[in-house]
Amino acid sequence: MSTSESHLAMYNFGLHVAPEVQGFVRREPLNFAAAEKASGFVGRSGYRGEPGPRSWGVMAFPRFLKGSGFDSGPSSLSLWEDIESLMAFSYAGVHAEALKNARNWNTKNDWPPLVLWWVEAGRRPDWERAAKKLEWLHDHGPGPQAFTFKQPYGRDGKPLEIDRARVKALMQANVAGQSELLEQLKDIPV
C-alpha cells in the first residue's frame, strides 16, 4: 500500500496502581492536545459519555483486565500517518514526560503495553478489534498484523527500518509547538 492508502493504528492498555491516579488524570488532556498538534496525527477515538471526539465503537478491553479488580483500564486508540510520526510524539515533549512518570501510576504487566497495525485510510479501528490485536501480539509475538516499535512492519507486511533521523526532526518540530502545554506540566504533581 502507498502512504495515502493506509494509516498506522495504535492501541495501548494498562492498569493503574489505584482506581484514580491524579497525576495521570490531570496530564491526560495535555497529552491529547499534544497529539492533536503533532505532525502525522490523523485522529483518535474518544470515550463514550465523555467530552471530546466520538468513540470508535463500544469500549472493550483485552482479557488482561479480568481478575484485576478493575472494570476498566487506561487505554487509547489513535491513527497516525506513519511509525516515525507516532514515535516522535511518544518519546518527546508532553507524552515523554508522562512516560517518565508512568511507573508511579501503572502496574508492571506481562503483556505488551501497546500494539501497532496498518489500516486502510478512511477506516477507523474499533475498541474491540484493538483489544484483540493486543491479545494476539501477546500470544504470538510481532508480525505484519500486530507489532511494536521494537519489531515494526511496513505497509507491505515486511520488516520495517525506522527512519531515526526523521523521528528526531519530527520530535524537535513537535516540542517547539508544545511550549504552552509543557509550561502547564510544571504545576501538575506526579
Layout: helices, strands, pairs:
Blueprint: E1 6-13, H1 22-37, E2 41-44, E3 75-80, H2 83-90, H3 93-105, E4 114-120, H4 127-140, H5 164-176, H6 179-185
Antiparallel strand pairs: 1-3, 1-4, 2-3
Helix pairs in contact: 1-3, 1-6, 2-5
**How much of the sequence is in beta strands?**
5-15%
Shape: globular
Alpha-beta classification: alpha+beta
- Rounded to the nearest angstrom, the distance between the terminal CA atoms is 42 Å
Major sheet strand order: 2-3-1-4
Number of helices: 6
What is the N-to-C order of secondary-structure elements (H for helix, E for strand)?
Answer: EHEEHHEHHH
Biggest sheet statistics:
4 strands, antiparallel
Count every beta strand, where a strand is a DSSP E run of 2 or more residues: 4
What integer is the average pLDDT? 95
Approximately how much helix is present in the residues?
A: 25-40%
Global Rg: 16 Å
Say what oligomer this is.
single chain
Given as residue ranges, the uncertain stretches (5+ residues, pLDDT < 50) are: none
Describe this structure in words.
- Helices cover 37% and strands 13% of the residues.
- The chain has six helices and four strands.
- It has helices at residues 22-37, 83-90, 93-105, 127-140, 164-176, 179-185; strands at 6-13, 41-44, 75-80, 114-120.
- It is globular.
